[in-house]
Design a protein that fits this description.
This protein is α/β, with parallel strands linked by helices and about 270 residues long. It has a domain of about 160 residues: Rossmann fold. A 6-stranded mixed beta sheet has the order 6-7-8-3-9-10, sandwiched between helices. The chain is globular. It starts with a strand and ends with a helix. Its main location: membrane.
C-alpha cells in the first residue's frame, strides 16, 4: 500500500506546488491523476519516486517511509517503483531487449551492470514481458526503429522487469493517436489486474481516465479537490477541477469510448 500524508512541495523561494496532499492507494488499485497544467500532478509523481525531494510530509510504501531515506536507500527502494515516462526515456541506440533489461540494473552488482551481463533468469523474464506487451518479434530491433506506441510498450515491459510493487505512469498517451492510447491504457489496466499492482497514472485525457481507472484524484492549485469513482466525476466536479466549461462533450466522449472498447474486445476475441 502507498500512503501519502501531508505532502508539500515548494521549489526554493517559489510558491507551494503541492499543498498538504494526503491519500492512500491500496494494493491493486489504479488511480487516475487529473487536473490542469501546473496543478502539481507530475511533481507529485516525482516526489513519490524521490526523483525530487518533498518539502514536507511522509510517503510510505508498504510501511517504508520514502521521505527521509539516504541516497543509497532511495536507490534500493526505487527498484520497487516502476516508472513509465511520457517521452519513453529509452536508450535509442540500444535494442528493445537491452532497454527492457535495463529495468534490472538496480538489482545487479556494479560489474554486471557495467558490462551489461544479466543473469539468465532476467533474460528469460524479459522475453516473457516482451511477449506480454506484444513485442516479442521486435526484441533485437533498435529502440529508434519503433513507433510511438511500440516505444511506450517497451517502457511498460521495462517497468515490469523491475518486479515493482507500485507503478507510476506520467502521461502515457500524450503523443499517441486515440486508438493506440486506448490500447496502451487497456494494457496497463490488464497488467495491474493480473499482478494486483497499484498504479498512479497522470493523465490529461479525462474520458480515457474514466474508462480505465478505478479511482480519480483531481488536483487544482496543488490541492486535492476531488477523490472518488469515475462515475462520480460530474460536470460540477470537472468545473471545480478545470474551471468553467461545457462538459457535455466529455461525458459523450466517455460513452463513445465505452462502445469502442467493447468493439475492440469483440474484434480481439473474434481474431
Amino acid at each position: 500500500m502507498l500512503k501519502i500524508e501531508h505532502l508539500k512541495k515548494r521549489y526554493k523561494t517559489g510558491p507551494w506546488v503541492l499543498k498538504d496532499i494526503s491519500f492512500e492507494v491500496p494494493d491493486g488499485e489504479i488511480v487516475g491523476l487529473i487536473g490542469p497544467s501546473g496543478a502539481g500532478k507530475s511533481t507529485m509523481i516525482r516526489c513519490v519516486n524521490r526523483l525530487i525531494d518533498p518539502s514536507e510530509g511522509n510517503i510510505q510504501l508498504d510501511g517504508v517511509n520514502l521521505s527521509n531515506l539516504s541516497s543509497s536507500k532511495v536507490r534500493e527502494q526505487r527498484r520497487h517503483i516502476g516508472m513509465i515516462f511520457q517521452e519513453y526515456a529509452l536508450v535509442e541506440r540500444l535494442s528493445v531487449m537491452e532497454n527492457v533489461l535495463s529495468g534490472r540494473l538496480g538489482y545487479l552488482p556494479f560489474w554486471r551492470s557495467f558490462l551489461r551481463r544479466y543473469p539468465e533468469k532476467d533474460i528469460d523474464n524479459a522475453f516473457e514481458y516482451l511477449d506480454r506487451v506484444g513485442l516479442i518479434d521486435h526484441a533485437n530491433k533498435r529502440a529508434d526503429e519503433l513507433s510511438g506506441g511500440q516505444r511506450q510498450r517497451v517502457g511498460i515491459a521495462r517497468a515490469l522487469a523491475q518486479d515493482p510493487r507500485l507503478l507510476l505512469v506520467d502521461e502515457p498517451t500524450a503523443s499517441l493517436d486515440p486508438k493506440t492510447s486506448r490500447q496502451i491504457m487497456r494494457l496497463i489496466q490488464s497488467i495491474c489486474r493480473e499482478k494486483s499492482l497499484s498504479a498512479i497514472i497522470n493523465i490529461h485525457d479525462v474520458p480515457l481516465a474514466m474508462q480505465f481507472v478505478d479511482r480519480i484524484i483531481g488536483l487544482q492549485g496543488g490541492e486535492v479537490v476531488f477523490d472518488g469513482k469515475p462515475d462520480e466525476l460530474t460536470e460540477d466536479v470537472l468545473t471545480r477541477i478545470y474551471g468553467d466549461e461545457d462538459w457535455t462533450d466529455v461525458k459523450a466522449e466517455d460513452d463513445d469510448l465505452g462502445i469502442d472498447q467493447e468493439n475492440d474486445q469483440e474484434s480481439e476475441e473474434a481474431a
